[in-house]
Design a protein that fits this description.
This protein is mostly helical and 134 residues long. The protein folds into 2 domains: 59 residues, no CATH class; 52 residues, no CATH class. The chain has 5 helices and 2 strands; from the N terminus they run αααββαα.
């Protein structure tokens, strides 16, 4: 194995470094496919750092969902099923406050929320009671 002369590592350590690089590339491939990022060209270091941070948060979310779903659903299938869940602002009530309603959950959506231990996100009363209208 050949490496930079200043890098004093054994062949095994160099192979491990190479494999670690491959894992990072696979993570970015996951980020790009899951979040469906298009090429973004940033002009400042702060924007690049912010973009990478958001990508890493997306990867953390993907891994957390994968862990919590325990193979019963794929992350992609779960996100696709939950995509139609909405909090709807219907109108202003008689007191001038907004009236909110959740979309009714399909059984598959409820099952995914149960698996994630987030059933409260499908509970109309809990959600509406916690909303702070703007």
């Amino acid at each position: 194995m050949v490496a930079h002369p200043d890098l004093q590592r054994t062949a095994i350590e160099l192979a491990q470094l190479y494999r670690a690089k491959d894992a990072v590339e696979k993570d970015f491939q996951t980020i790009k496919s899951l979040v469906e990022l298009r090429p973004v060209r940033h002009q400042t270091d702060a924007k690049v750092r912010a973009h990478v941070t958001i990508c890493m948060l997306a990867l953390l979310l993907e891994r957390t969902l994968h862990h919590k779903l325990k193979g019963k659903y794929t992350v992609e299938a779960a996100l696709e099923a939950l995509e139609e869940c909405r909090l709807n602002r219907l109108a202003a009530g008689a007191d001038g406050k907004a009236v909110y309603a959740l979309t009714e959950l399909a059984p598959a959506q409820s099952a995914i929320l149960r698996e994630l231990r987030l059933q409260q996100l499908g509970d109309q009363e809990q959600i509406v009671a916690r909303i702070m209208p703007r």
